[in-house]
Design brief:
- It contains eleven helices and eight strands.
- The protein has an eight-stranded parallel β-barrel.
- The protein has a single domain, classed as TIM Barrel.
- The longest helix has 17 residues.
- The chain is α/β, with parallel strands linked by helices and 281 residues long.
- It is globular.
Length: 281
């Protein structure tokens, strides 16, 4: 199956009528898409009550992609609120229990920063991470070109296959060492992840602006670009049982619209979605 969704559910105004409150947005979101990426887990390990509520608000077939906590991927600067890495990973895994018990966890996404380059100590850390996560499905996404330069590209793919990492394939600007090319290769026969970050080359490496994150993902895919990707998604599906594709280009509110366009291009109508609220007319 090809499962289309977006990152987060709170900011996609084009999906919701004015009658949908903030606490109702996830349920309404799940009337459009069968999967969502949880990004709040990146900023803090979430309390169980949050996951328990989100699981209850979504249909039985709904799936969550949960982003790994920033301390686990080396994003956080300064002191971590844990005494050790082992304690941090244990706390994060505990936070996943509601998803797992409901059968709604698609995978955990480990997205590493631009300074996480291809070198021995980082390869060893990836092995350690995979061991810590036990049998939990985990996707791996890089932001440094050294993982896919020259002959290293095939070695990286082989490493992910051997260590049972799900490949997180990216569509993003080609903007120097802090970006990666699209490598449309499957490393796990059960699942693959595709993340659409947009193609805003000028905004990708922008710094010194309080809104730099918003600038980075300010992009709307056009029809031709989506058509090209629809063919890639179909090809990936021929090699892998489940293809998860999430749009992250939401700085201008474009992610949900592009995701709906992709559904139309693939001629997909999901069963088992939540009932949709109707507008006044």
């Amino acid at each position: 199956m090809i499962l289309i969704g977006v990152t987060g559910w709170g900011d996609h105004d084009s999906l919701y009528t004015s009658r949908v409150s903030g606490r109702e947005k996830l349920t309404e979101y799940s009337s459009f898409f069968p999967v969502v990426e949880v990004d709040t887990s990146f900023y803090a390990v979430q309390p169980l009550k949050n996951a328990e509520r989100w699981v209850k608000q979504t249909p039985k077939s709904f799936r969550f992609i949960v982003k790994a906590y920033q301390g686990m991927t080396g994003h956080q600067r300064g002191d971590l609120p844990f005494d050790s890495n082992t304690e941090m990973f244990t706390a994060f895994k505990d936070s996943l229990k509601p998803y797992m018990e409901a059968g709604k966890l698609a995978m955990v996404l480990f997205q590493f920063p631009p300074w996480f380059e291809c070198k021995r100590e980082n390869v060893n850390y990836l092995r350690w991470c995979r061991i810590q996560m036990d049998d939990i499905p985990c996707a791996l996404e890089f932001r440094n070109q050294t993982w896919f330069t020259g002959e290293t590209r095939s070695k990286t793919i082989d490493f992910m296959k051997k260590e049972n990492w799900i490949h997180s394939i990216c569509d993003e600007p080609q903007a120097g060492v802090g970006s990666i090319p699209t490598v449309a290769e499957v490393t796990n026969l059960d699942q693959v992840l595709v993340r659409f970050h947009g193609r805003n080359v000028h905004g990708w490496n922008k710094r010194g602006n309080v809104n730099w994150r918003e600038v980075r993902y300010l992009y709307r895919y056009n029809q031709r670009e989506l058509e090209e990707w629809s063919k890639v998604l179909k090809k990936l599906h021929s090699q892998c049982e489940n293809v998860y594709a999430v749009f992250n280009n939401n700085s201008g509110g474009d992610a949900a619209d592009n995701a709906l366009q992709m559904l139309d291009l693939l001629n997909i109508e999901y069963g088992g979605l939540a009932p949709r609220q109707l507008g006044l007319f």
